[in-house]
Amino acid sequence: MKARITKRGAAVPDIETLTPMSDELRVPQPTDESIRSMLVTLERDADLTLSPIERLFLATDGTVTHMLEALTRGDVSVSILDRAVADNRLFRTVALVPDAERNPLVWARSTVRLSPLADTVADELVDGEIGIGDVLREECTETRREIVEMNVHSTADRFPSFVESDAACLLERTYQIYAADTRIMTITEYFPKDRLSTYRTP
Prior knowledge:
Blueprint: E1 2-6, H1 32-46, H2 52-59, H3 64-72, E2 76-86, E3 89-98, E4 106-113, H4 119-127, H5 132-138, E5 144-154, E6 169-179, E7 182-192
Antiparallel strand pairs: 1-5, 2-3, 3-4, 4-7, 5-6, 6-7
């Protein structure tokens, strides 16, 4: 089972390949209806049912770390799995891990263009240990996010090498972050299917 739902005209990275970003690409801002359509199409094509929490995490344009903290009622740490700078771009892979647990709830791979960013923002992303959303918020950087792809992988597919999970199914979404109409980041996040839905009200 594999479903790949991409906004028309959007360019997204392959699972294991981070594609350099072009200043010329301008993806129209998605509407609420387009996000709903992506979710409906994903469920239909993959023949699965997403839980309300999974739909929220796939569709949100907020900070996933904060959503996880609200969901788990605890702190969530950003574990840097890999980080490298090349051609004035930062390539970063992280896992988001609740402090009360050992297993990550989310993995994320990012490509960040450093040249448009303030030095303080670029330095924190290259050397810091906190999430991208928190860095942008602390530096008062005005940005917007656009979701461009939702995807599903089953155990029959090849999971990204940095995702260590025994889940039967992996949910994926890719979004882009813009500052002053310039695309500065492309981020792909991975969620084990059904894992987020285990958190219930006591």
